[in-house]
Amino acid sequence: MNLWILSEGVNYELKMTHKDLKENLKEVHQLKITNETNIVELIDSLKNSGFNAKRLALACEIYNEMVNDKDCIKFFGLAGALVPAGMQKILHDFIKEGYIDVLVTTGANLTHDLAEALGYHHLQGDQIDAKGFNDSDLYKSEMNRIYDVLMPNKVYEGIEDFVSNLKIPDNEMTVSSFLQFLGNQLPNNSESILNICAKKDIPIFCPAFTDSGLALQIGFNHQQVNLNHFKDMLKMVDLAWDAKKAGVCFIGGGVPKNYIMQSLQFCPTSASYAIQITMDRPESGGLSGATLKEAISWGKVNEKAKYSTVISDATVALPLIFWFLKESKKKN
Question: Which one of 3, 102, 169, 321 has the minimum C-beta count within 10 Å?
Fold first, then answer.
């Protein structure tokens, strides 16, 4: 019989008998956690499970290979607004530990990162179910809601005060250069994404920067500024072109994912490693739900690449991946 085996990162035909099939299939291991189980052992055990637990284990394994591959440039695409949910320090430490070489993100993440760095905080709502909030009352109380997280209007007022006092050295610098300048204006003890990238000289690309509260304040208060997006685009292509190997990790999708992928598309080296954490579906044709396997047809992901798509809320999966990487680093 001919049996097609289709799974994430695997696509091959097996010609075997029913007897061969039974002999080659592995049993699903039933998980057991003891008082001695650590995160590395837990993730390793998930490799023998099923569904997204197995995909998460594969993603951890692939990311660890990326980190230990000295020729690999690690491109990290960050969509949405994860900082309000409490992921700022996780993302900061991804960069601090050397797990990200190039960051592409939304303006929302940078806006909220700046707010936290300036001493403002996002607030927990009491109700997980959005029906528990009266949004009209929140509006009257000058509170903005992000699902079950709240942010006072005064946060934007604080950002405006900070931005209005900036002495921007070049009105036509690239967005990435401006973000490096901005990061250097922040306290070094803030655990800010902007600040750690500036200190470690990790480029931050934000191709849709004007789609953010931070950019609005810059536009309002520094109308002479005209940041250059095209030079950033060419710089990004150069980074992808010069990489001996490329590895990508996408948190969500959207503009950050496409920005990285389109750079790889026109380079001789497509991604050798690829990870995606998303809650979106592929059927609508949107990039956020597009499979990594689909990217092979574009030349963005190598046909021999190791890849895994994890269907999960990133606020659950991302800390687990970081914890696994950090503990694995201790064992190396």
Answer: 169
Active site residue 32: no
Spatial separation of the C-alpha atoms in residues 236 and 102, rounded to whole Å: 9
What per-residue confidence (pLDDT) applies to 6?
Answer: 43
Q: Which residues face 52 on adjacent strands? A: none
Tokens of 123: 């607030």
- Closest listed residue to residue 302, CA positions, set 263, 275, 260, 274: 274
pLDDT tens digits along 121-149 = 999 987 655 566 788 999 999 999 998 89
| 3 state DSSP class of 114 | helix
Q: Which of 54, 74, 293, 300 is catalytic?
A: 300
- Nearest alpha-carbon partner for 229 in 273, 173, 294, 187: 173
* Residue 310 DSSP code: E
In this structure, of 22-36, 261-275, 311-325, the range with the lowest mean pLDDT score is 22-36
CA distances from 122 to 17, 48, 53, 251 (A): 59, 38, 30, 21
d(CA 205, CA 256): 8
Distances (CA, A) of 26 to 9, 21, 45, 312: 18, 10, 14, 25
Cα–Cα distance measured from residue 86 to residue 82, given in angstroms and rounded to the nearest whole number: 7
Torsions phi, psi for 160 (to 5 deg): -65, -40
**Residues in contact with 10: Cβ distance below 8 Å, sequence separation at least 6, in sequence order:** none
